[in-house]
Amino acid sequence: MISGNSIKHIKSLGSKKKRNIEREFIVEGAKTVAELLRSEMKIKKIYALKSWIHNNAKKFQGIDIQEIDENDMQKISVMQTAPEVLAEVFYKEEKKFQIEPDKLYLCLDSVQDPGNFGTILRIANWFGINTLIASNDCVDFYNSKVVQASMGSVFRVDVFYCDLPSTLKKALEMQLPVYGTFLNGKNIYTEKLSSNGIIVLGNEGHGILPETEPFINKKIFIPTGSDARTAPESLNVSTAAAIVCSEFFRSCPKKFCQV
Amino acid sequence: MISGNSIKHIKSLGSKKKRNIEREFIVEGAKTVAELLRSEMKIKKIYALKSWIHNNAKKFQGIDIQEIDENDMQKISVMQTAPEVLAEVFYKEEKKFQIEPDKLYLCLDSVQDPGNFGTILRIANWFGINTLIASNDCVDFYNSKVVQASMGSVFRVDVFYCDLPSTLKKALEMQLPVYGTFLNGKNIYTEKLSSNGIIVLGNEGHGILPETEPFINKKIFIPTGSDARTAPESLNVSTAAAIVCSEFFRSCPKKFCQV
């Protein structure tokens, strides 16, 4: 039986404001919690069904765990189907962000959709990009839909929110390449790509914002194989992220994040 | 004012069974309807708010259109926020599917998520792949979430549902390469890729199914830049589709669908 206060507390963490006060967020579902347990994140408490506890007994030694029934799980979960397990997790320790000249960063300009943000974290993680820069108006990466879509990559990729123009200005002053996708950019397949610098991807509806554009010194473009009459207007931002990261990875044999 | 019968009819098209009887489906939202209007699809009727009609008067000459208010739009829409416009559209004319030896096909094995299916249609369309093969248990491409996620590409890419093993068997008999993504496949960046044949992508949770695997003669893999301890277990199927299509497109300069 879960207490009314616990239900209230967990549900309150759906709000970014409350999360930032408590410095806690929620991780739901067997797959994402499995990733959580093999990460270095600090877990405050796990709520789980009997079946999950039975199958995972070895994995959560030393963690405060409470068995609840499906009815209670439904009350605290935001998922359509109540998951087997839900965890209250402490925020990562805050690190100070400083651009390292030899690293490659992915950077999101006003990406609002949690599914896109989470998918992009997973893509960055796949290709060994371990730091993501996000403009202050991007969706919060502790949002439960971001956590879900990232399939655990949120635990492994560091995300820094910042004022994008001033951060990119600093990168240019350090002589780093700042890439961005534009319709009038150069063909990504033939352009020489770097193994360091920053790759900026834009907002779902508007692309890279006008106030960000002046700080991009390498405009790139993913060519289409359809003619203008039959081609889609654009690609989804997470699709573009996948193609761009793949292309940087393919053309730069050294690892992006070895410093 | 919309009639009760019309509301009932439109809502019934949320069911695949009913869609197949009526041979009609629903397209919602200003962006997707704009794509609909520039496509060759046959529209049965448009329901729209006054503002949309005012702004689009030139685009729908000869189409049966009814002005409704937001309240009525909310009743017939499945979107969270009622759209400005909703269209009842006739199914495409059915074509007979036959593998053409010089074309490149994308093929989905048991892809269930409408968002993934729609995103993959948009990716195929971007790279000039105009035919998608889907196993019979994939989500229906007239599902409104597929239509939405495809951003209109559903109007431009042909989808054929079929029994996958027997279709792929036929491709092998025609000496065509049948690609599929597997963890033990060959590096997609260094493997020679063909400009014809079939690329199979697997189910969200299980990848390519065991009954499909014997018919794949070119196993490929997207390498990861993270080490085993920190890499995600897999990529989302639409992310994989983006990378694989991009790589085929980059390495095969000729268009995939010129026959």
Summarize the topology.
The structure is a homodimer of 259-residue chains.
Chain A: H1 4-12, H2 16-22, E1 24-28, H3 30-37, E2 43-48, H4 50-56, E3 65-67, H5 70-76, E4 85-90, E5 104-108, H6 114-126, E6 131-135, H7 144-150, E7 158-162, H8 164-173, E8 178-187, E9 197-201, E10 218-221, H9 237-251
Parallel strand pairs in A: 2-3, 5-6, 5-9, 6-7, 8-9, 8-10
Antiparallel strand pairs in A: 1-4, 2-4
Helix pairs in contact in A: 6-7, 6-9
Q: What sort of overall outline of chain A do the alpha carbons produce when their principal axes are compared? A: elongated
H/I helix tally of chain A:
9
* Total beta-strand segments of chain A: 10
Which protein chains make the most extensive interface, counting residues with beta carbons within 8 Å of the other chain's beta carbons? A-B, 36 and 36 residues
> How far is the first residue's CA from the last residue's CA of chain A?
49 Å
Q: Would you identify the CATH H-level superfamily of the largest domain in chain A?
A: SPOUT methyltransferase, trefoil knot domain
Output the structural class of chain A: alpha/beta
Oligomeric state of the chains in view:
homodimer
Helix content of chain A: 25-40%
**Tally of domains of chain A:** 2
Strand order of the largest sheet of chain A: 7-6-5-9-8-10
CATH architecture of the largest domain in chain A: 3-Layer(aba) Sandwich
What is the averaged pLDDT score of chain A? 94
CATH class bucket of the largest domain in chain A? Alpha Beta
CATH topology (level 3) name of the largest domain in chain A:
Alpha/beta knot
Strand content of chain A: 15-25%
Largest sheet of chain A: 6 strands, parallel
The radius of gyration computed from the alpha-carbon positions of chain A, rounded to a whole number of angstroms, is 20 Å
- What is the H/E order of chain A? HHEHEHEHEEHEHEHEEEH
Low-confidence stretches of chain A: none
